[in-house]
Fold:
Amino acid sequence: MHAKQLRVGVVGATGAVGREMLKTLEQREFPATSVRALASSRSAGQEIPFKGGQLIVEELDENSFQELDLALFSAGGGTSEKYAPIAVRSGCVVVDNSSAWRMDPEVPLVVPEVNPDDLAKHKGIIANPNCSTIQMVVVLKPLHDAGRIKRVVVSTYQAVSGTGQKAIKEMETQVRQMFNMQEPEAEVYPYQIAFNCLPHIDVFLDNDYTKEEMKMVLETQKIMGDETIRLTATTVRVPVFFGHSESVNVETEKKITPAEARVILAQAPGVQVLDNPKEKIYPMPIHAAGEDLTFVGRIREDESIANGLNLWVVADNLRKGAALNAVQIAEVLVERDLVRV
Ligand code: A2P
Structure:
């Protein structure tokens, strides 16, 4: 597929990630001849600003893909399950941000800084990993290459925008309600999220982990191409609008000192080290929001074991955690002439 003929669709264009996908396509001057915005009948006819003009949102249906070469999906797992195979049958390559296809052995799960070569095997659908996994693996990969990671213990502090537009609105409303001495109303989350933390993201599974926690375990092994990496996660929703933070404890086979880790990570693609405790320099969501890089700081030795490091990793969950990673995948597909089913 020559870049000049690339007709692109964004499915879920009115959502938190979909809007960011359009913004990212525009900012990175993605080589598309046309871009279409698709969503449900609820928002058909709405206008979304794009490249100085407006895109009119179209209702998604079975015929939407006939005139498309590439579709970026972020409209939930059910929509992806139903429409991604239809898109592929119409000759359209899908980059899917939902969890529907991520663990399918036929579907590459890709972070371009980590495993771009997996894209060559695609059969029409490429999965974009979970937001928390993406920002963690861009930091883990160079450490794994340097010292082989044996085990990771991660706790996340995840922004409400990861749940979508409704959750952003819910937290805004709750803050206003509480300042007005009203009872906060919770619909998206099971409890109030304003001024609270919820150790509960996605559904609980039989092993008492949440699905979000198990996504981090399984997706990390798949992206890193190493099922021997042991990982355990606790994922927590916090009252932050944009930007996920993670406390990551890493045990390696070969010792990596904090000084060595700083050098390794300073050279890692897509990563910026922000680590000067004396000057109070460390990554925070207020600085990561709107940025493309993954920031890492608080790099220090885990003094309780022989070969351990503690890290603090922050990124914009809508950008590197979702829209940017999907667009980067699309860019590699174009560069490698892989936009074909
Ligand atoms: P709509 O705005 O028409 O409901 P978020 O993650 O921010 O909640 O956004 C979800 C996105 O997925 C929105 O663009 C939403 O469109 C879209 N979406 C949800 N369900 C469907 C569906 N059945 N068909 C097409 N788009 C859908």
Summary: Residues 12-16, 18, 39-40, 42-43, 60, 75-76, 79, 164-166 surround adenosine-2'-5'-diphosphate (CB under 6 Å).
